[in-house]
Design goal:
With about 230 residues, this protein is an alpha/beta fold. It has a single domain (about 5-230), classed as 3-Layer(aba) Sandwich (Carbamate kinase). It is about 35% helix and about 20% strand. It is built from 7 helices and 11 strands. Strands 4-3-5-2-1-6-10-11-9 form a 9-stranded mixed beta sheet, sandwiched between helices. A two-stranded antiparallel sheet has the order 7-8. Strand 1 (about 5-10), helix 1 and strand 2 form a beta-alpha-beta unit.
């Protein structure tokens, strides 16, 4: 195994699957099996999920209110993943940046690390607990806090391209790229705050296709899957 402790960032939109809204049970079960596979190998896994399957650019007058709605939606997604993991006998803990004692633990850095050391998969909900920050930023922040070896950004695209591959047939995929090159080329990997946090704290990022079975295990093994953003 190349990585001992990872933070896996999943998009909320990916959970929609073949539906138009909400959570596709087949897709989330697939993700749970992929996570179980690497957890069974001894990898310490933290997960952050977005909220785009429920809340995306919600039209409310108060931006902060809309962001809090998104945070609550991430907890719904986190609970669904927790249930899918526990259905296949994976020990989990759900920690939230917003206190919800009846359904999850409050996020405390040392407690999160202790759960990882005990080989529990931790799911980190409610973003950073503050408006104006995306779940990408929450993923970067939490990865730094728990001293993860890498952020794995699971998407529906198999890496980083020179242009949008769905719009430009001539777009080329990078196997590796540096943080400086991403800045210079104006590529969008994650929001700038999140990306800068990773850069400043020397935390590599791998962007890969999470929907292809087996890819997560290959990334952990160090195989060439997706695109590695390095220094």
């Amino acid at each position: 195994m190349k990585y001992k402790r990872i933070l896996l960032k999943l998009s909320g939109e990916a959970l929609i699957g073949e539906q138009k809204f909400g959570i596709d049970s087949t897709r989330i079960s697939q993700y749970a099996r992929e996570i179980k596979n690497i957890a069974d190998q001894g990898v310490e896994v933290a997960v952050v999920i977005g909220a785009g399957n429920f809340v995306r650019g919600v039209n409310v007058a108060d931006r902060a209110q809309g962001d809090y709605m998104g945070m609550l939606a991430t907890v719904i997604n986190s609970m669904a993943l927790q249930s899918a993991l526990e259905d296949i006998d994976v020990y989990t803990r759900l920690l939230s940046a917003i206190k919800m004692e009846e359904i999850c633990e409050p996020y405390i850095r040392r407690r999160a690390i202790r759960h990882l050391e005990k080989k529990r998969v931790i799911i980190l909900g409610a973003g950073t607990g503050n408006p104006y920050f995306t779940t990408d930023t929450a993923a970067s922040l939490r990865a730094i806090e728990i001293e993860a070896d890498v952020i794995l950004k699971g998407t529906r695209v198999d890496g980083i391209y020179s242009a949008d591959p769905e719009k430009d047939k001539n777009a080329t995929r990078y196997d590796t790229i540096t943080f400086n090159e991403v800045y210079e080329k104006g590529l969008t990997i994650m929001d700038l705050t999140a990306f800068t946090l990773c850069n400043e704290n020397k935390l590599p990022v791998i962007v890969f296709d999470m929907n292809k079975p087996g890819n997560l295990g290959k990334v952990i093994a160090g195989d060439q899957v997706g695109t590695l953003v390095e220094f």
